[in-house]
From TrEMBL:
It comes from Micromonospora humida. This is SDR family NAD(P)-dependent oxidoreductase. It comes from the Bacteria. Transmembrane segments: none annotated. Pfam families: adh_short. InterPro entries: NAD(P)-bd_dom_sf, SDR_fam, Sec_Metab_Biosynth_Oxidored. SUPFAM superfamilies: NAD(P)-binding Rossmann-fold domains. Keywords: Oxidoreductase.
Length: 271
């Protein structure tokens, strides 16, 4: 039985991926923050496990990684979906802007923290579902926590670009056998809009008639888990390959962000 870990496996595309993998006979470990959603996915099958964690918290993310390491010596696939929009700038107890912490940092920790478990699998793969191929947004190197100027879209785009670089850095530096796949699902009929202002929510709901069905968006993710790509790094925007020479996948920027992230995590650990 294959073991699949899904961050954000309790809703939207993560949950649909969980359901597809359960149908294929896998054991799935879903991470989410809402216990009711956790109970709902656990009720689907005895092969679903729910680990509750607020992935905005480095401490809770580390705890959930330790739990997985203790209970599952082998992880065949890690699929990263957890994200939430934040209209206002919110700072976590650990002093991090929450979009950066949830959408980027938790994925960094899970990717590197489950390395040994992934390397114990025959054909391990990590699929990071974000926005590769998008060139909008940038890394605010001098203000990663967006203290000076915050905007919801800007925070999402920065974390998206950071995930692009995470994939590049993981592939070039980790030494892991796990194939890394960066995937942009496109505008999809999923997403918890509860944190959005009512007007924005209304606009997105109205536009969702043209959004892609969840089942279509997750199909490649389900397939990569069955059959990981041969290359160390793959980038796909709605099925179209994104060339690894893209400016958003710059190896030097990836190395720089990896170094900055390690230093940040060391500082948090020391504090
Ligand atoms: N939907 C789109 O149009 C679209 C387009 C491009 C890219 N994407 C990307 O695709 C990914 C999945 O999107 P989606 O639409 O499927 O999202 P979604 O339906 O809103 O699901 C988000 C998942 O993340 C979990 N989550 C949120 N905050 C969390 C926290 N603090 N700690 C732990 N888990 C947390 C949620 O579980 P809990 O509620 O239990 O916390 C839920 O399982 C995201 O990275 C998104 O940026 C989506």
């Amino acid at each position: 039985m294959r073991v699949i870990v899904i961050s954000g496996g309790t809703d939207g595309m993560g949950r649909a991926t969980l359901e597809a993998r359960i149908r294929r006979g896998d054991e799935v470990v879903a991470i989410g923050s809402n216990p009711a959603k956790g109970r709902a996915v656990r009720a689907l099958s005895g092969r679903v496990h729910f680990l509750r964690a607020d992935l905005r918290s480095v401490a809770q993310t580390r705890r959930v990684i330790d739990t997985i390491r203790g209970r599952w010596p082998r992880v065949d696939a890690l699929a990263l979906f957890a994200n939430r929009q934040s209209p206002r700038r919110v700072v976590t107890d650990e002093g991090l802007e929450q979009t950066f912490a949830l959408y980027y940092l938790s994925r960094y920790l899970l990717s590197h923290g489950l390395r040994d478990q992934l390397d114990a699998a025959e054909r391990p793969v990590i699929v990071n579902v974000a926005g590769v191929g998008t060139t909008r947004g940038s890394i605010h190197w001098d203000d990663l926590q967006l203290t000076r100027k915050y905007g919801m879209v800007d925070a999402q785009l920065q974390a998206g670009r950071a995930n692009d670089l995470l994939g590049v850095d993981f592939a070039q530096r980790s030494g892991s056998r796990a194939r890394y796949v960066l995937y942009h699902p496109g505008f999809t009929r999923s997403g918890d809009l509860s944190t959005m202002p009512p007007v924005v929510r209304g606009v997105i709901r109205a536009a969702s008639v043209v959004a892609r069905p969840v089942e279509k968006s997750i199909r490649p993710v389900v397939e990569w888990i069955d059959d990981p790509p041969a290359d160390a790094l793959t980038a796909s925007d709605r099925g179209r390959p994104v060339p690894l020479s893209a400016t958003t996948l710059d190896p030097a920027a990836a190395r720089r962000l990896g170094t900055v992230t390690d230093a940040l995590l060391t500082r948090l650990h020391a504090g």
